Amino acid sequence: MLALVEQGQVTSAYIGDVNTHEIYGYRPGSRSVHRISEYETSEQLTHVSRPIGEQYALLRDPPEAYSPASRALLARFKSYEVEGGSIGIWLARLWKREVGAALLLPGMETPWDTAPIIGISKMLGYRFYRPAASGWTSYEPVVVERTLRRDHDLLIIHEVDCSGLGFPPP
């Protein structure tokens, strides 16, 4: 995983998936993210919307570890999958549309993990949300320069799927 950050903005990011031998990323000035396979083929990643009730949510921890707001949100999805490992490889499942949303517990944000996943997710049209007193609210993740703690659950979902959950526009 690597990213080029200029004045707090991710201008290029790449994540390699050692399991599938794929690389996800975009270069400076690009308007799209590509998936490059081991066979040296490149595919531009795009989003195809499906109803939330037909999609899975991706978790890194069992649902009971999440906030009440997150657990209630999970009930709107078809189901969920719990999977660990590298956060970049984990989120590649979202970018490939194998799952409809990703949910993270509060935790440590590190420059080497945060910058590439923020850059690729934003470039693909994914939005970030956090629980709030009145439901969920848009959240603008910060590309950190040093390790910091995030004290809330974090939902990553594509902008066209936000209305299916009744979320306010970002």
Describe this structure in words.
By secondary structure, this protein is of the alpha+beta class. It has one domain: 3-Layer(aba) Sandwich (D-Maltodextrin-Binding Protein, domain 2), CATH 3.40.190. 17% of the residues lie in helices and 35% in strands. The protein contains 3 helices and 13 strands. The protein has helices at 68-74, 87-95, 111-123, and strands at 2-6, 9-17, 22-26, 34-36, 42-44, 56-59, 79-82, 101-104, 107-109, 126-132, 135-138, 148-150, 154-158. A 6-stranded mixed beta sheet has the order 7-6-8-13-10-11, sandwiched between helices. A hairpin with a 5-residue loop joins strand 4 (34-36) and strand 5. It is globular and about 40 Å long. The model has no long low-confidence stretch (mean pLDDT 93).
Compile the SSE list and pairings.
Layout: E1 2-6, E2 9-17, E3 22-26, E4 34-36, E5 42-44, E6 56-59, H1 68-74, E7 79-82, H2 87-95, E8 101-104, E9 107-109, H3 111-123, E10 126-132, E11 135-138, E12 148-150, E13 154-158
Parallel strand pairs: 6-7, 6-8
Antiparallel strand pairs: 1-2, 2-3, 3-4, 4-5, 8-13, 9-12, 10-11, 10-13
Q: Rough shape?
A: globular
**CATH topology call:** D-Maltodextrin-Binding Protein, domain 2
Describe the sheet with the most strands. 6 strands, mixed
**Total of domains:** 1
Taking strands numbered 1, 2, ... along the chain, how are they ordered across the largest sheet?
7-6-8-13-10-11
Task: Name the features.
170 residues, D-Maltodextrin-Binding Protein, domain 2, 3 helices
